[in-house]
UniProtKB/TrEMBL annotation:
<dbReference type="InterPro" id="IPR007492">
    <property type="entry name" value="LytTR_DNA-bd_dom"/>
</dbReference>
<dbReference type="GO" id="GO:0000156">
    <property type="term" value="F:phosphorelay response regulator activity"/>
</dbReference>
<dbReference type="InterPro" id="IPR011006">
    <property type="entry name" value="CheY-like_superfamily"/>
</dbReference>
<dbReference type="InterPro" id="IPR046947">
    <property type="entry name" value="LytR-like"/>
</dbReference>
<dbReference type="Pfam" id="PF00072">
    <property type="entry name" value="Response_reg"/>
</dbReference>
<keyword id="KW-0597">Phosphoprotein</keyword>
<feature type="domain" description="HTH LytTR-type">
    <location>
        <begin position="135"/>
        <end position="234"/>
    </location>
</feature>
<dbReference type="InterPro" id="IPR001789">
    <property type="entry name" value="Sig_transdc_resp-reg_receiver"/>
</dbReference>
<dbReference type="GO" id="GO:0003677">
    <property type="term" value="F:DNA binding"/>
</dbReference>
<protein>
    <submittedName>
        <fullName>LytTR family transcriptional regulator</fullName>
    </submittedName>
</protein>
<feature type="domain" description="Response regulatory">
    <location>
        <begin position="3"/>
        <end position="114"/>
    </location>
</feature>
<dbReference type="Pfam" id="PF04397">
    <property type="entry name" value="LytTR"/>
</dbReference>
<feature type="modified residue" description="4-aspartylphosphate">
    <location>
        <position position="54"/>
    </location>
</feature>
Amino acid sequence: MYKCAIVDDNEIDRLTVASFIKQFPELLLLKSFSNAKEAELYLAKEPIDILFLDIDMPSISGIELRKKLKNVPVCIFITSHPEFAVESFEVDALDYIIKPLKQERFSKTVNRITMYLDIKTKSSLFETTIGGDTIFLKEGRNHIKVKLHDVVYLEALKDYTLVVTAQKKYCVLSGIGKLLKEEHFKSFIRIHKGFAVQKQYVEEFDINRVVLHNKMIVPIGKSYRKKVSFLLTDALIQND
C-alpha cells in the first residue's frame, strides 16, 4: 500500500482528490493540507510515497514545495494552470493533471503511479542491452527479446522508458533522452517530453496528437509542434 498526502488551498479540490484516492485499495491517504508550510513540516518527518500537489498556492508554490521535498518518490501536480506543465516536469513530476478533476483521468494517473513504483521496486532485476535490431531485456532469470522494428512508440517514465509494441509494454532502465541518442533509435521522432514515435507507424497527425498503428494516439507537446511537423509530414510520405 502506498502512502499519500494532498496539498491544495482549495477545500473542494482537496475533498475531490481524497474521494478519488479512497477508491483505490493500493493507496492510503495519510493527511491533507491547505498550505505548503504545514505540509513541509509534516512531510519532513513522515515519509510518504505519493504527493498530490497544487501549484498556485499562497506563500509557497507547489513547484517550490516539490523542490524542498525531493525525497518523495512520486509527485503529481493537480492545477488549473496548464502553462506550468514544462516547469513541473523539471522538478521530477510523474504526471500533471488539469482541473477540474475527472475520475477517468485520475485513474490513468494511478495506473501510471503503480507501474512506476512497481518498476522502481524491481529495478535491480532489470537489465537492458542493445544489439542490431534487437533489445534484450533481463527480468530475473528470464531474457526477453524485442525487435526494434516492432516498437510503435517510447514513453518516458522518469528514469525509465516504456518500450511499447502493439502487443505489450516493456521497461528499459534508461531515460528516453539517452535511448534516443543511440544509433538504433534513429527511426524515432521525439514529439513530446514524454513520448517518441517510430516513423513507420505514423498514420496521421494534427497539432495536438499523432495517430499510430492500430489507432494508438500519442500527444504532441506544444514546444515540439513546429519542430516535428516537417518530420512527421516526411514520415507520412515515406510510409506511402
